[in-house]
Amino acid sequence: MSNTLQSLSDHWRNRYLLMRHGHSQANQQGLIISSPERGVADFGLSEHGEQQLAQVVVDWQWPRPTRVIHSDFLRTTQTAARVAAAFGLALSVDTRLRERHFGELDGQGDEHYPRVWALDAQDAEHQQHQIEAVSSVAERMQAVIREWEQKVSGETILLVSHGDPLQILLTALAEKPLSQHRQQTPLMPASITPLGAHK
């Protein structure tokens, strides 16, 4: 459950571990849960997701994190809490790590995702169905890393977020067109992608 982008960030001051939340109740039910109104208080980890996190912590194969920053959605909060507890770290919320907002499709079935991604492939700025533009997601996700690069150095920062935002971030960091974000290898639940300084 590891994805690595080589030589993207040799100039960075910190190392980052990008983590997708564990398997969630939304995944289990096949629902798009992308609004804070639905996602902050409900739709946390599924039983399978809890098992995934327990295994990830036991088999930890990445650098030891020094900070844990997470989206405030329940599924990401619970994921971050499992890792933070294992390393004795405090949690820090950053709403810029939230799920991409899927507008009118929020609360509907996840069979709508491919249609949205097809629109993304045509135009990274589109906001059809009041969906958050890919470019907007890329900007807020990159802003998190930019801020930490300015604040600290030599740290290993775990960023716990969601599938689409993380794939969009990885596409931006690879300097590829944002419309190609679905060409990234899909990030599996509870997967970790290391980025940043190699010491």
TrEMBL record:
Region (Disordered): 180-199
Xref: InterPro entries: His_Pase_superF_clade-1 (IPR013078), His_PPase_superfam (IPR029033)
Listed Pfam families: His_Phos_1
Organism: Halomonas casei
Positions in coiled-coil regions: none
Protein name in UniProt: Histidine phosphatase family protein
